[in-house]
Write a structure and sequence with these properties.
By secondary structure, the chain is an alpha+beta fold. It folds into three domains: about 170 residues, Beta-Lactamase, CATH 3.30.450.40; about 150 residues, Beta-Lactamase (2-Layer Sandwich), CATH 3.30.450; about 120 residues, Histidine kinase-like ATPase, C-terminal domain (Heat Shock Protein 90, 2-Layer Sandwich). Helices cover about 50% and strands about 20% of the residues. The protein is built from 15 helices and 16 strands. Strand 6 and strand 7 form a beta hairpin. The longest helix has about 60 residues. This is Putative histidine kinase response regulator. GO terms for molecular function: phosphorelay sensor kinase activity; protein dimerization activity.
Length: about 525
């Protein structure tokens, strides 16, 4: 009768435990209640539930019976070595009188409490092992019994059902948040869109909904690199605005093949500008109209367990599609605005050419006609000066027309002007600049960095050696040639300097392009560097 009564009590305790572990749908709370219930049913002093990851190691470890101080002193929790790994390799119950005497005993870390008696049971969700339930040190110094093992078998079945329900609820909630985030992005797309605001919203919502530590939006510049345009979450300094190669590795494959990829370590998936202390990451291409515009990367902390199944990945892909649409709309909006600006600039350039220049040219012709009618020498000299000023004004207006008909960004003329302004510091004054001809349209893209390098070297030489008070820079483009000339009023040509260093580099660049580079004395003093290449 005593045994029957004890059995009934244990059965009632098991039913209470089954009911108790299913009262909440939060996954972590469910795991904690399972471990606590197992310890109560078997009179175990210590208990733990280890979650088995895809790589057959323990990705999470929920304990019972250890204080926070014990956790802090022990440090890193187990990953599935030794006796704990037996259940991972062969998911069947195991009962030991002394865990330290087993051949696979891995040993305990410092500050770990002593443990001897041991009972381990796998926890299954259908045919898949979710994790293992570990119990140690039965109260009173006894051993775990057959009844304890049977109770744990029954509890593990109920635990599997409770864990599955909690996971399904968690997944449903997360999918709902993905849909809400996608709806928020759609709302942004319906109005005037700001690229930076839209991308920042994409990154922040992706990180929040995925419960990740870091989210990145990397945009393709049309070359072989991706720019880290927006970051959200635990952001390392120097990451935003940096570039990463998209030639090789998983990141490059996502861009080229437009497929989703899961990487074990985002920090090792590419050569980042700063170290990324992250673990598992999901890489999703931002593709629209068959073109990859960038990549959305959602990364978790190193060692964190990320639960992403097929439907989750599909929702992430849908969300990334919305993000790509935001990029496409932002780009289209920017292009419309640029076209409007270019239209206005073309109209202004046409009016300057057809009206203003023609009137100035006509005025100059009339003045020259007056000068031929036998006026006094002083008057003729003044007329010639005025005509020369009109010619200079016409050249300046033509230069303005060339600038107006140049794309808004990427103009060589702008780079030259910026470089001349930069030379103000080393020289102590701003060089005078004259640009003549359509240098932004006739100079090929591959020659532009060479021109900038040549002008920088010539200005640098003038700053170091000339001791000049004025410097004149001329960049002239003709249909068949490009000329860069830098003249100064300094101390003149030093033959020793002219044959070495920067001047030799100028000549080598000209020779490689089939051009010439000369270094001549100025009139009345100074130096004139003339660099010419064919177009």
């Amino acid at each position: 009768m005593g045994e029957v009564s004890a059995s009934r009590e244990r059965l009632r305790a098991l039913l209470d435990a089954v009911v108790g572990i299913g009262t909440d749908l939060d996954l972590h709370s469910t795991l904690e209640r399972i471990v606590a219930a197992a310890c109560r049913l078997t009179d175990a002093k210590y208990g733990a539930l280890g979650v088995v990851g895809p790589d057959r190691t323990l990705t999470d470890f929920i304990t019972h019976g250890l204080s926070k101080e014990n956790h802090d002193l022990i440090g890193d929790l187990p990953h599935g070595h030794g006796v704990l790994g037996l259940l991972i390799e062969d998911p069947r119950p195991i009962r030991l009188p002394d865990i330290t005497a087993h051949p696979r005993a891995y040993g305990f870390p410092p500050h770990h409490p002593p443990m001897h008696s041991f009972l381990g049971v796998p926890v299954r969700i259908r045919d898949q092992v979710f994790g293992n339930l570990y119990l140690a040190e039965k109260e009173g110094g006894g051993q775990f019994t057959d009844d304890d093992e049977e109770l744990m078998r029954a509890l593990s079945v109920a635990a599997g059902a409770a864990i599955e329900n909690a996971r399904l609820y968690h997944q449903t909630q997360r999918r709902q948040r993905w849909l809400e985030a996608a709806g928020e992005i759609t709302g942004v797309l319906l109005g005037e869109i700001n690229r930076a605001t839209a991308l920042r919203l994409v990154a922040e919502r992706a990180r929040e909904v995925a419960e990740a530590c870091l989210a990145l939006v990397l945009t393709d510049d049309g070359g072989r690199e991706l720019a880290v345009e927006v970051v959200a979450g635990e952001v390392p300094a120097g990451l935003a605005g940096s570039v990463v190669s998209a030639r090789d590795g998983e990141l490059g494959a996502v861009v080229r093949e437009r497929h989703i990829a899961v990487v074990e370590d985002l920090g090792a998936a590419a050569e980042w500008a700063v170290p990324l202390p992250t673990g598992t990451a999901l890489l999703v291409p931002l593709a629209a109209d068959g073109e990859t515009l960038g990549v959305l990367a959602v990364a978790y902390r190193a060692g964190a367990a990320a639960y992403l199944d097929g439907p989750d990945v599909a929702l992430v892909e849908t969300f990334a599609g919305q993000a790509a649409l935001a990029l496409e709309r932002a780009r289209a909006q920017e292009e419309r605005e640029m076209l409007a600006v270019l239209g206005d600039r073309e109209r202004i350039a046409r009016d300057l050419h057809d009206v203003v220049i023609q009137r100035l040219f006509a005025a100059g012709m009339q003045l020259q006609g007056v000068a031929l009618q036998g006026v006094r020498p002083q008057a003729k000299e003044r007329i010639d000066t005025i005509v020369e000023h009109l010619d200079t004004t016409i050249r300046d207006i033509r230069g303005a027309i060339f600038e107006l008909r140049t794309p808004v960004n990427g103009a060589l003329r702008s780079e030259v002007r910026a470089l001349v302004e930069e030379a103000r510091g080393p020289l102590g004054f701003r060089p005078q600049l004259v640009t003549d001809g359509p240098i932004d349209t006739v100079v090929p893209d591959e020659l532009r960095p060479v021109v900038v390098a040549v002008l920088r070297e010539a200005l640098s030489n003038a700053a170091r050696h000339a001791q000049a008070t004025t410097v004149h820079v001329t960049v002239a483009a003709r249909p068949d040639r490009l000329t860069v000339q830098v003249s100064d009023d300094g101390i003149g040509v030093d033959r020793d300097v002219a044959s070495v260093g920067g001047v030799r580099n100028l000549r080598r660049r000209a020779d490689e392009l089939g051009g010439t580079c000369s270094l001549e004395p100025g009139d009345p003093r100074g130096t004139v560097v003339t660099w010419t290449v064919p177009l």
